[in-house]
Structure formats: C-alpha cells, structure tokens
Amino acid sequence: MEKQERGTSRRERRSTSDLLRTSVGPDGAKGLAEVLKHNTTLSELNLIDNAIGDEGAVAFANMLQLNSTLTTLDLWMTSMTPVGGAALGAALDQNRTLKQLWIEGNSTATARAFGAALPVDREISTPWYNDDEGEVAFNEARKEKKELLSSTYGGPEQRQTTFLHSTQQSREHPRTAREQCDDDAGTP
How much is the pTM? Predict the structure, then answer.
C-alpha cells in the first residue's frame, strides 16, 4: 500500500499511501489523522470512496494544522457535508504544505463550504474532473468571498490601515467586549 519513488535519495523520497475503498470509516480516519499529525514521511494519501464523513474530515482538518509533510490528500467520495468542507478549508490557513486536495464527489454544498472557508490568499489545486456542479459552487464561493472582503475592507492596504486604526482606537478608548457587541448590533 505504501510506495516510494525510485531514483531519489533517502531524504528526498516521497511516500504514498493508497487506501482506496478500504472501509476506513470515521473512526479509522480519526486514528489515521492522529498518527499523521507528526508524520515526516508520507506525502500523499488517497482515501477515495471511504465513508469517513464529517468526523473524519474534521480530524484531517485538525491534522493539517500540524502536519508539514503531506502535499496531496484525496478525499473524493468520502461522505462529508459542508461541516467537513468548511473545516478543511479553514485548516488550510495554517497549513501551507498541502498543494492538492481532492474533494469532488461529495455534495455541491460541501464544495461551496470549502471554497467559502478557504483563505482568500491560499492557492491550492482542487481537481473537479467529474463534478462540474462542485467546481462551479467552489469557484462561486471563492469569488463571493474575495468580493465581500474587497468591498468591506478595500484592498490589502486598506485592510491593514483599517486594522491599525482599530487597534490604535481601542488603545485610546478601551471598551468592554459587551460594549463592542452592542455597537456592532446597533443596540443603544
């Protein structure tokens, strides 16, 4: 199940684990994700057609926040919902090592949630060979998020200026969290 590329030094070897249709399930995915948190050799993992569901997807999202070796994760047809898609997207803010994540074959809503949670500045390859609806949902969510951030905060320079102004203002006029929430909600 595990293979290494030939013709590379021991240090440069990439390791792949193919667990295609092996009935991993949510509990198996959680165990595997726990082991991979501190993985230093496995670079590619294929879990195609294993019903890991949201429990497994969230476990992999948690793992990705610590793992710095995995470059490809294939979660095609793994029975995850938007909960799992959003968790994976959010995890990629911390993980910059993963270069390719396959999530096609789950629901269109999962693809949309992944696209909406993925940080705007995070580029990742997400192949959609057999899932045109998922690809459209993912791309629409990414576009909407970028437009929302741009219209709300302006460009990167404006976001930085807004943040600096907010930080300076809060130092000059300290407020409780309750006062800030009341202001944000428009409560007198």
Answer: 0.74
